[in-house]
Every structure is written in C-alpha cells, then in structure tokens.
Write a structure and sequence with these properties.
alpha+beta, five-stranded antiparallel beta sheet, 2 helices, 5 strands, about 20% helix, HotDog_dom_sf, Cytosol_ACT, HOTDOG_ACOT, long-chain fatty acyl-CoA hydrolase activity, hydrolase
Length: about 130
C-alpha cells in the first residue's frame, strides 16, 4: 500500500452523544472531556496508520471555536498530518450537530503528536528501512 493510501485509510471518524454528565454548569461539554476524546481519536488514527503502539507526547493549539452543548451529537475526525521517523502528528476536528435539526458546525480542532514505542517503551521507527 502506498503512503497516501495509508493516510487516507487511517482517517478515523467517531460519533458521540453529549449527555448531561459530560457538561459543566453552563450546560456545555467540559474542556477536559473534549481534550480526552480528541486524544483518544488521535491515538486510534495513529495506530490505524502504522499498526504500532503509540503514546501522546504533545498537543498543539487546541482551538475551541464554539461551545458543545448538551443534547447534541459530535463527530470527531482524526487525520494523519505529518509522519516522522518515530512520530506522527494527527489533526483532530470536532463537529457538533443538533439532534433534531440539520445543523452542523466545526467546534474544536487541534493537533496531537504521538510517538511509536517498542516493548521496552523506547521510541520505535514507524517504517523499517
């Protein structure tokens, strides 16, 4: 499989419902919960891309453009953005949809860097030469 096909096939889509137990006193999703979901999707995307074990080493500029209210649907989309020797940068976007109206908006985006690790938890090359 070529590199571009591998990137396309690793694109990950996850849908969730925003239930009240994930929201704050403003009835919007906790920022920490949003970041947790994004990290999870970044991990899934990196793993699907390289079929290696990964750990998150950083996240870059997470932009909260719109609040995510309770009683909405969210779609998280992970896409490989950059591949290094041992690391992968994954962009994760979150779109919020109203449940009973055809309204969909981008709410959050951010980049996560993950490093492939071996059985000794040391950095491992993503592709062997």
């Amino acid at each position: 499989m070529n590199y571009e096909t591998q990137i396309q096939e690793s694109e990950t889509h996850v849908f969730k419902v925003v239930f009240p137990n994930t929201t704050n006193h403003h009835n919007t999703m906790f920022g920490g919960k949003v970041m947790e979901m994004m990290d999870e999707v970044a991990f899934m995307t990196a793993t699907r891309f390289a079929r290696k074990s990964f750990v998150t080493v950083s996240c870059d500029r997470i932009d909260f453009k719109k609040p995510i209210p309770a009683d909405t649907l969210v779609e998280l989309i992970g896409k490989v953005k950059y591949v290094g020797n041992t690391s992968v940068k994954v962009n994760v976007e979150i779109f919020v949809e109203e449940m009973y109206r055809d309204v969909r908006e981008k709410a959050v985006s951010g980049d996560f860097t993950l490093v492939a690790i071996d059985e000794n938890k040391k950095p491992s090359r993503i592709f062997e030469n």
